[in-house]
Amino acid sequence: MKIAVRYQSRGGNTRAVAEVIAKTLEIKSAPIDSPLDETVDLLFLGGAVYGWDADPQLKEYLGKLDSKKIGEIVAFSTTGAMKKAISRITEYAYKAGIKVNDKQLCLKLGMQGHGTFGREGGHLTDDQIEKIKEFTSDVLAGFQD
After folding, report:
1. What's the pTM value of the predicted model, to 2 decimals?
2. Which ranges in 26-72 belong to alpha helices (H)?
3. Which run of H or of E encompasses 24?
4. Pair 91, 1: CB distance under 8 Å
5. What does the pLDDT read at residue 19?
6. Which of 3.40.50.360, 3.90.1720.10, 3.20.20.70, 3.40.50.720 is the CATH number of 3-138?
7. Dist. CA 68–CA 73, nearest whole Å
8. DSSP per position, 84-139
9. Could you list the mean pLDDT of each consecutive 10-residue stretch along the chain, which spans 145 residues?
10. How many Å apart are CA 35 and CA 13, to the nearest integer?
């Protein structure tokens, strides 16, 4: 099975989650400006909420995805309180004709990494890391069934 991990991250939180997912899968993660040239069965794709919506770069990336190269998207997000990025990833994936896995991860990190407050993101707790690992394993187990 071929798997890729891509993310859009401003403050470092979503990047940190992507790195844990990739490490669990024993692959490398990459930002969305890194092309997805190969065909993949699963694309773990993450982003966050900015101004009550998904980042414009993430929406643009989703609009350019080739449905022939992606079997299924697994959405993940970091957020202070909203789950909007997950719904946007799902919405744009469906518009592109790409299936979205039912399992999703929305990790609530409060204001951690929020640039307005000068907080640096990307520092996950052991509990958060464990939750990400469990999510990744759960997705793989469900996909292989």
Report:
1. 0.89
2. 56-64
3. helix 13-25
4. no
5. 96
6. 3.40.50.360
7. 12
8. HHHHHHHHHHHHTT-EE-S--EEEE-TTTT-GGGT-------HHHHHHHHHHHHHH
9. 93 91 97 92 88 79 91 88 76 90 84 49 84 96 76
10. 21
